[in-house]
Amino acid sequence: MTMQHQPGDLVVNAPQAEAFAMLTSALARVGSAATWSQAPTSARFNHKYMNFWRTGVLGAAMHGQLDVIPLGDTQSAGRITLTLNWGGMKAYLALLVVGAIMIFVGTMNWLETTGYSLNPPGMMLIAVMVIGMFAAIFFNFSRFPKFAHEELIRKLTPNLAPAPYPVPAMVQPVAAPVAPPPAAPDPTPLDVPAPAGDTVFDKIKKLGDLRDAGLITDADFDAQKTELLKRL
């Protein structure tokens, strides 16, 4: 049964099982080897999203799911789903908590050294700022799978080995049309002049003489003889 693929799927010109092998090999080449297979065409893998401007030095740990669906006899689509691995981000989260506490304590100490004592509303304002910082960080976390998916697809595309199957016509380069060789003209019946009153057998005999003299070929002789015999 042919299925539709979604935007972001990796379309591979290979049957389902072969496409699965190609995609898992490509994942291994970009450092995201499959940890175990769920089915002949489905596997899980671990992926680390390393983008300093989005995730910081530690990066973001991801759970990956690869499912290969058939699009036809010689084409398949690899669907990759990424989700945050919260267990693998314990060090990252701990660093954020420690950083938030240090910011809060440092702010309080700075205000104390400047002789400014915070009243309850001021302390609430600082607490709201810290909570807002955490909310912004976790909002950015929610977008990591999308960014990581786009980056992983970009890395996988050039790592897919070319498949030995023809690319669909819609994406094939249009080649210049090649003119077919001119067809050989059909042999035309030889117009053998014969005096009035010649019979069919006389004409066949004269054709035989022309053949024996090398003026016509055996094929021409047979074709004309057949045509004349049809008139009997």
CATH architecture of the largest domain: 2-Layer Sandwich
Largest sheet: 5 strands, antiparallel
Strand order of the largest sheet: 1-5-4-3-2
- Alpha-carbon distance between the termini? 62 Å
Number of distinct beta strands = 5
User: Within the CATH hierarchy, at the fold level, what is the topology of the largest domain?
Assistant: TATA-Binding Protein
Q: Helix-strand pattern, N to C?
A: EHEEHEEHHHH
Helix/strand/pairing category: alpha+beta
CATH superfamily of the largest domain: Kinase associated domain 1, KA1
Q: Quickly count the helices.
A: 6
Give the class-level CATH name of the largest domain: Alpha Beta
**Molecular shape:** rod-shaped
Q: Regions with pLDDT < 50 over 5+ consecutive residues? A: 163-173
Helix content: 40-55%
Number of domains: 2
As a percent range, the share of strand residues is 15-25%
Mean pLDDT: 75
Question: Which value, in Å, is the CA radius of gyration?
Answer: 40 Å
Explain what the structure shows:
The chain is α+β, with helices and mostly antiparallel strands and 232 residues long. The protein folds into two domains: 10-92 and 124-171, TATA-Binding Protein (2-Layer Sandwich), CATH 3.30.310; 183-232, no CATH class. It contains six helices and five strands. It has helices at residues 16-29, 52-55, 90-113, 120-156, 200-212, 218-229; strands at 10-12, 34-39, 42-49, 60-70, 76-84. It has a five-stranded antiparallel beta sheet with strand order 1-5-4-3-2. A hairpin with a 2-residue loop joins strand 2 (34-39) and strand 3 (42-49). Helix 3 (90-113) runs antiparallel to helix 4. The longest helix has 37 residues, at 120-156. The protein is rod-shaped, with a radius of gyration of 40 Å. The two termini are 62 Å apart. The model is unreliable at 163-173 (pLDDT under 50).
